[in-house]
Write a structure and sequence with these properties.
Elements lengths: L1 H12 L3 H13 L6 H8 L8 H4 L1 H16 L4 H26 L4 H29 L3 H28 L17 E6 L9 E5 L2 E8 L2 E6 L13 E3 L2 E3 L6 E3 L5 E3 L8 E7 L2 E6 L4
Antiparallel strand pairs: 1-10, 2-3, 3-4, 4-9, 5-6, 6-7, 7-8, 9-10
Bound molecules: FE2/S2 (inorganic) cluster (FES).
Length: 286
């Protein structure tokens, strides 16, 4: 079973036809995320964690509950219908949060994300049809439509899990970096850190982004928490380091996320100078 499912995800990841679906989605909905406010809200930057995994519990939970009440008979019809409608309503913000993450993916993750979205949208359409069928007195048809929708949601959930756990979408890309607990000398001298751009330095096994902020040298992990972009090759904009890959902005004062798609702050390092050399160590939590 596991091998068959793995092959299926690989097959989906290799379907160029899904790129056309993705391009159309981007054309229609991509501009929604041009606003920093919308982008930060939908990604979950304010939460410090991707928002989509939290929201998916609402449609899945309410639809599963509704399905269970459908099985329990006539006394539970009103409660089943209420849960069904609540799930339909909650599916809309859930889809927006997923879309916000998806617009900054490429290649296999984008194709699998497109398939995930198509399955969930088909499930939403079936649940909407179920609401209408139930209101018109066709309860048996409504139950059948909801049952088919739950099957689609389960398949979509598998693809969503594959995106996160196998392909690392939404995962903090510094999560497995051991902290530099001792002061470690970098290979970049203080005089080589410019005023208006970040640089990449090496400290032991770790790559560090060095920049100047308010006259001081500051240091952060050079691997962007969003998807691993090289922050030392980015730019400095309005007191923030901007990632060259998807434009996430991190405050140079404390590493907090100012602009999505990143949701996790950038790990910060303490800095001290020793004879013109820069030494860093992992900053202790404030
Ligand atoms: S890797 Fe995506 S914003 Fe940095």
């Amino acid at each position: 079973m596991a091998v068959a499912l793995h092959r299926l995800t690989q097959w989906i990841a290799q379907r160029p036809a899904l790129d056309k679906v993705g391009d159309t989605l981007m054309w229609v909905l991509g501009p929604t995320f041009n606003s920093r406010l919308v982008k930060n809200a939908a990604n979950g930057t304010w939460l410090g964690h991707p928002l989509h995994p939290l929201l998916v519990t609402l449609p899945i939970g309410t639809w599963a509950g509704s399905g269970l009440l459908d099985l329990l008979g006539e006394d539970n019809e009103q409660a089943a219908d209420t849960l069904l409608t609540a799930g339909v309503i909650s599916a809309l913000p859930t889809a927006m949060a997923g879309l916000a993450q998806w617009v900054d993916t490429y290649g296999p993750p984008r194709r699998i994300g497109a398939a995930h979205a198509m399955a969930n949208n088909a499930a939403l359409a079936l649940q909407l049809a179920s609401v209408v069928a139930r209101r018109q007195g066709h309860r048996g048809l409504g139950k059948g439509l909801s049952c088919a929708a739950l099957g689609l949601v389960s398949g979509a959930g598998y693809l969503g899990g594959h995106l996160s756990y196998a392909l690392g979408v939404g995962v903090d890309h510094t999560a497995f970096h051991d902290p530099l607990e001792d002061w470690t000398t970098t290979d970049v001298a203080a005089a080589a850190v410019p005023d208006d751009a970040p640089v990449t330095a090496r400290a032991g096994e770790r790559q560090i982004m060095l920049a100047r902020h308010d006259g001081e040298i500051v240091a952060y992990d050079a691997v962007c928490t969003h998807a691993g972009g090289p922050l030392g090759e980015g730019t400095i904009v309005d007191g923030c380091g901007r990632c060259p890959w998807h434009g996430s902005m991190f405050s140079l004062a404390d590493g907090s996320v100012v602009e999505a798609p990143a949701t996790t702050p950038q790990p910060r390092y303490d800095v001290r100078l020793s004879g013109g050399l820069i030494e860093v160590r992992a900053a202790l939590p404030a």
